[in-house]
Amino acid sequence: MRITDWIVRPATVDDAQGLAVCHIESWREAYRGLVPDHLLDAFDTTRSTQQWTRIITELPNATDSSAAAAERRTLLVAVAGKPETAIPASVRPGPRGTEILGFAHAGPPRDNPRVADRELYALYLRAARYGTGIAQELMRAILLPDTDTALWVFEENPRARSFYRKFGFAADGARRIEPFSAASEIRMVARRGITERR
């Protein structure tokens, strides 16, 4: 077993501010040059914290069997901490002030018509943690192996596209331009039986 200084667990409301900081700083680190600077610089931690609080409070109970697993929204965080001191992720609270190193958010697809059963809405990691295995662990934890999954990624983000290919994602030809940036996004889809390539 590899010793790490981080763990992956479900997000709690106490993680909202840490998620906001991680999300904003990850965008600034990854998208400077793709997204206009004035937009990146205008991100507001207070507003983002409120949005993450709403998202977390609206997450379904993981034990609720009324919805298929693919239809459930899931939000996982990678936090600083020692795995050997962690209690099981299903019951571990998020202490206030915990540093969020990265996160993954997935749920029902937003595309209409649907091209997959599930969508990876976001996977972000602080740049200082690139290459540590955190992103891989978040992907392993968020993906459902027998469920088609789609995502959107900036075409001019070769690092992210290469990472997703390792998990079986391939561009399906769809593209879009976000209203806030002239950069185009491409859709990538992983079909059932997702396997990680090393």
From TrEMBL:
Key word Transferase present: yes
PROSITE patterns with a match to the protein in the record: GNAT
Keyword Magnesium annotated: no
Keywords, alphabetical: Transferase
Gene3D superfamilies named in the record: 3.40.630.30
InterPro entries: Acyl_CoA_acyltransferase, GNAT_dom
N-acetyltransferase domain sequence ranges: 29-193
MF terms (GO), sorted A to Z: acyltransferase activity, transferring groups other than amino-acyl groups
Protein name: GNAT family N-acetyltransferase
Organism: Nocardia vermiculata
